[in-house]
Design a protein that fits this description.
By secondary structure, the protein is an alpha/beta fold. It contains twelve helices and 15 strands. It has a six-stranded mixed beta sheet with strand order 11-10-12-15-13-14, with helices on both faces. Strand 1 and strand 2 form a beta hairpin. Bound molecules: zinc ion (ZN). The site of zinc ion (ZN) has 7 residues, from loops.
């Protein structure tokens, strides 16, 4: 795989592409002569029916924060990719290809708004995937199929900020056709941040809108508690002037879990805190819990809790492609990352601070497979403030003084975490 050398990438338009648009072909010719030489050479070897690359399948799975694309080929394809903006697009360049994609698999889903494919008159072919968000190409490779003939292209795309996308674009413009791309993905994954940038916290008020979350016997709704708490936490953090603070929601509105993750990524958050207040059958259980993500739950109760929280999208009637193996792989990848150790570090410090001011449950740091904690490079925790099923907890949750006490402890934990990160040069 080599990088492409499209210098005027944002001038390229794909509208109506696939129907031999002359402007488009002209732009490609003038902007990417080197690419065409290579591709023509491939085509010139003989474009007889047998030798044309066969693209036999296209699959994608994911949500508003990430998507995995898999294309199947009869043999190893020579592939290049590049980014375009307005809209944000991933372009995959191939030698002349006979596409046998199932059109149903190209239907928009998650962050993908459009998939097009077709042949250029020069004997090259393209697949263009449009997204509704800036993104990063986290992983892009062609691998040989293990259990069947042929090769597959696997691309993992994650939502990112405009700044990160622009950085990747300028990186691409600076890349020549002679450079190998093997390091390119690494560079895209680490956009440089200006020194003046404040430590950024995204506070997520759990549930909202049609999804009320848990409900106490007196009718107190979890979504109301979490919103009040998130607004107060933001105000308190803003007052320090040390942080940039964003809320996933500041009113009673429904948000999908992946949209919450995406908001954290779009703000390049240094920390994501999702606030909740659940109910539990055992009314005697009370106190706060801090959760981090894991593919294996710490205990049965944490596993059940993750299942309840992950139901949020289904409550709103949204189909979740959770069973997809690709998504399961992504979760395992995520847990191996450095981000996860930062999440663990913050969780420990949060438990330490909160223990000084409010009641916590036994073993207050627990973990399970929460979908809302899956931003790949944002340390994330889910804070269960207490149980709406416990009368004493409910009184506390509704008391602004109790909330202020808890918030003071959270701010202390964030102060320590931000200082440690700054000290580590991050
Ligand atoms: Zn909840």
């Amino acid at each position: 795989m080599q990088p492409c050398s499209f210098p005027a990438s944002d001038n390229v338009t794909t509208r109506g592409w696939g129907l031999a648009v002359p402007d488009f072909a002209q732009t490609v010719k003038s902007a990417c002569f080197l690419l065409l030489v290579v591709l023509c050479a491939v085509a010139a070897r003989g474009a007889s029916a047998q030798e044309i690359l066969q693209a036999d399948g296209y699959k994608m799975a994911g949500d508003a924060s990430r998507v995995r694309i898999i294309m199947q080929f009869d043999r190893e394809p020579e592939v290049r990719w590049l980014l375009l903006r307005n809209p944000h697009r991933l372009v995959v360049d191939l030698p002349e290809t006979a596409f046998r994609f199932d059109e149903a698999e190209l239907e928009p889903r998650g962050m993908v708004t459009d998939v097009r494919h077709g042949n250029l008159e020069s004997g090259a072919s393209r697949v263009i995937v449009s997204m509704d968000t800036p993104f990063e190409v986290e992983h892009f490779e062609v691998v040989q199929n293990e259990s069947s003939p042929g090769y597959r292209l696997v691309a993992d795309i994650v939502a990112s900020s405009e700044k990160a996308f622009e950085a990747a674009l300028s990186d691409q413009i600076g890349t020549t056709g002679a450079t190998q791309t093997t390091r390119k993905v690494d560079r895209l994954a680490t956009p440089t941040k200006p020194e003046t940038r404040k430590f950024t916290v995204v506070v997520d008020a759990g549930h909202g809108g049609i999804d009320s979350g848990a409900e106490s016997s007196k009718g107190t709704l979890e979504k109301t508690i979490t919103l009040a708490f998130a607004l107060e936490l933001k105000k308190r953090l803003d007052d320090t002037s040390r942080y940039d603070v964003y809320l996933t929601r500041d009113r009673d509105v429904f948000l999908r879990l992946d949209e919450r993750v995406r908001i954290a990524r779009q703000h390049e958050a240094d920390l994501f805190i999702s606030v909740h207040a659940d109910t539990i059958r055992l009314k005697g259980i009370s106190g706060a819990t801090v959760y981090t993500v894991s593919d294996k739950a710490s205990d049965a109760e944490a596993a059940a809790k993750a299942i309840r929280e992950n139901l949020s999208d289904e409550i709103a009637g949204i189909e979740v492609e959770e069973q997809n193996q690709g998504v399961a792989d992504i979760l395992v990848d995520l847990i191996r990352r450095e981000t996860h150790s930062f999440s663990m570090r913050f969780a420990r410090s949060l438990v330490g601070e909160l223990s000084n001011s409010i009641e916590m449950i036994n073993n207050p740091h627990r973990f399970a497979g929460f979908r809302v904690l899956r931003a790949p490079d944002v340390p994330s925790v889910l804070l269960e403030l207490g149980y709406l099923s416990n009368e004493a907890d409910e009184v506390k949750l509704r008391d602004p003084k109790w909330r202020a006490k808890a918030i003071d402890s959270i701010v202390s934990a964030i102060d320590m975490f931000a200082a440690a990160k700054a000290g580590a040069g991050g």
